[in-house]
Amino acid sequence: MISNSELKKQARDELKGRWGLAIGGFFIAIFFFPFIIDVINFFIDGSLPVKIIKYLIMIAIQFLLIVGTLKFSLNYVTDGKTPFLDDIFSGFKVAIKALTIYVIMTPCIILGLFLLIAPGIIVSLAFSQALYILVDDNSKSAIDCLKESVNMMKGHKKDCFILSLSFLGWFALMIIPAFLLAYFPFPISLGLTYLLLVFIGLLILIPYINVTFACFYIKVKNSYNSIT
């Protein structure tokens, strides 16, 4: 398996000259549209059933935007393909299959976390490639994507887990100053500057992480296809 440093280098190489597109795409998917949805949600009132339906629709839309970012990231690293902003909305084209994967996967992970935490992590790692498989080949069913992910991740769950941990340092750099600002009397201007820097940092870090994991998917997929 290719090392984490090589995966990250590959991601940086793929993003080179295309950072602006990546930042714009993830801004739309992760910040702009969720904000618009929350604003609309705030002004729409109703009975409890209406609120529940509204909440479920909001979650579904935000989830499908995230699915779109997977396709967006995958097009950065797939030979012969080019990422476009409209990839962000591609999750809506496979909405039923993507939501089926989500509905099946989420309770399994939650149950595993409730048992002993570790089983939940293992299950999440086993299913981690299902949505990539779907956006890579949307002719496959939700069940086929989940099964293929489980098979594909045999022998690679540890690699995926370590890759995930390798990004924690970046988030720690953002979170630690937040605790300092919360417990010590810093000027408001410093707090606002920090929030702006965190926002800018996330706009750079999130595309970097996503394209790195897209590189991981391609490597695992090629390894899996070579032995099947």
TrEMBL record:
Keywords attached to this entry: Membrane, Transmembrane, Transmembrane helix
The signal peptide annotation in the UniProt record is: none
Q: Does the keyword Nucleotide-binding apply?
A: no
Matching entries from PANTHER family are given as:
MEMBRANE PROTEIN, MEMBRANE PROTEIN-RELATED
Transmembrane stretches in the record are 20-43, 55-74, 94-127, 161-186, 192-218
Q: Name one Pfam family in it.
A: DUF975
InterPro entries attached here? Answer: DUF975 (IPR010380)
Q: What is the protein name given in its UniProt record?
A: Integral membrane protein
